[in-house]
Amino acid sequence: MPTRQSKQAPPPKAASNRSLHAAKTTKQDEFYTQYIDIQKEVEAYLEFDPDTFRGKVVYCNCDDPFESNFFKYFAANFNKLGIRKLIATSYDGSPIAGQLTLFPEYNAGNGKRDKPKAVAVMLDHVKDEDGDGAANITDVKLFLKRNKAARIALKADRYPGGDFRSPECIALLKEADIVVTNPPFSLFKEYVAQLVAHEKKFLIIGNLQAITYLEVFPLIKENKLWLGPTITSGDREFRVPEHYPLNAAGWRVDENGVKYIRVKGVRWYTNLDHGRRHQRLECMTMTDNLRFSKHKEIKGKAEYERYVNFDAIEVPFSDAIPSDYDGIMGVPVSFLDKYNPDQFEIVGNSDDGAMMSQIGVRPLGREFINAYRARGGTGHYSPGMRMLGLLKPQPRVIFKRILIRQRDRAQSARGKKK
Questions:
Q1: Residue pair 13/195 in contact by the 8 Å Cβ criterion
Q2: Which of 135, 188, 229, 316 could covalently link to 44 via disulfide, CB atoms 3.0 to 4.6 Å apart?
Q3: Three-state DSSP class for residue 326
């Protein structure tokens, strides 16, 4: 989606309780990524492989050129990264209209509407256009203004112009090697499915809870998608359109009247390799965790809690994974920030009932549900659901767990049984 770099301003008021999940629910899709977040993420891939983008066609769809920090970053670093071609597309009715409204065809057919029409911009080189001795984003703007052939209007059909599902945008997608953007939150599942169907490399932003989407988790399990390295906790600031309500806990308006809010639970999703996913997670033994863990839920206990309906232990924190445990463990979705596919094997997703049945999770029984209700539980749970349950310290159903086991120890244990 379109982005714009924020000017320096005082820190935001407070961390927001607003999540990208809430944004998806209310169809408030217009979040615009900060330049610094894009820069940090891309540079992490370059540290692992300096040629990640060299000779590649980079496609920033869902992005208004010159309003998009994705386009700004790749245009400004076109030569440094060795990009072969950069493509960016905006969509008809974009809530943020920028300098491309200076192009006559960008407003063609709009009549009295203020909102711009969709456009695709293509760069196959960046050179010194203004003669100042440097090739930068100013030269890109000048080149595009002088060369009408570098931009084309995108027409509407069954989808609005510039919609990633439109035939014109799919044709551009087929040309691309790597897609980098912030897609519409409400269409995240469909967007990822399209990238996978066309076998594209990608680097996109989504919400943390998307990990357990039934359309996304199998890709993670099969090592076809993973999390990026630079956002692993906390929240991030996004620009929002003028019409966006400032009802989040953390927000600000800069000196130019531009609105920003802070959003929790943001992650990069990618299939580009990076160094962090090959770093081993250092873990204490089970005995040491029970003696020295910093978490009160672990320290001082006689043992880890076990699920009532599945042979696995509950590990509520990634840093509490016992290094000497051979079996299956339930861990939070944030574990994927530290996931090393050489060290751990992903077994299942507690949100997927069919997957839970396949790996042997038994349905919760009426006795468990009655005990849960008796202690005051109000969740919408019923007998027969294949969700993970715990009895201690009180009956409860566990929210969103990824089931894992240690790859080396699991292979060793299976070998001993033969």
A1: no
A2: 229
A3: coil
Burial class (CB in 10 A: 0-12, 13-18, 19+), 132: exposed
CA distance 80 to 67: 21
Contact 121, 87 (CB under 8 A): yes
Q: Is the pLDDT of residue 99 over 80?
A: no
User: Which residues are registered as beta bridge partners of 237?
Assistant: 262
Distance CA 186, CA 313 (A): 34
| Residue whose C-alpha is closest to residue 75's, from 184, 148, 164, 180 | 180
Mean pLDDT to the nearest integer, 122-147 = 84
Query: In sequence order, which residues have a C-beta less than 8 Å from that of residue 99 and are 6 or more positions away?
Result: 66, 67, 141
CA-based diameter of the chain, in Å? Answer: 79
Give the whole-angstrom CA distance, residue 144 versus residue 19: 37
The sign of the dihedral angle between the CA atoms of 90, 66, 99, 127 is negative
CB 31 within 8 A of CB 68: no
Tokens of 355: 């997957």
**CA–CA distances in Å: residue 248 to residues 254, 257, 261, 351, 414:** 16, 17, 7, 28, 50
pLDDT above 70 for 298: yes
Cis amide bond preceding 393, omega within 30: yes
- CA 285 centroid distance within chain: 32
The residue among 279, 263, 258, 392 whose CA lies nearest residue 343 is: 279
Rounded CA-CA distance 349/364 in Å is: 16
Order of all β-strands in the sheet with 259-264: 235-240, 259-264, 251-253
State the pairing for strand pair 119-123/85-89.
antiparallel
Are residues 342 and 273 in contact, defined by beta-carbon separation less than 8 angstroms? no
Confidence band (pLDDT; 50, 70, 90) for 38?
very high
Cα–Cα distance for residue pair 84/111, rounded to 1 Å: 37
pTM: 0.85
DSSP for 321-382, please give it: --TT--SEEEE-GGGGGS--TTTEEEEEETT-HHHHHHHTPPPPPHHHHHHHHHTT--SS--
Q: Tokens in use for 52?
A: 């990640």
Q: In what order do the strands lie in the sheet with 344-349?
A: 312-314, 328-331, 402-406, 344-349
- 368's tokens: 């468990």
Q: Kindly tell me if the per-residue pLDDT of 22 is higher than 60.
A: no
Residue 376 CB contacts under 8 Å (≥ 6 apart), including other chains:
none
The DSSP output letter for 99 is: G
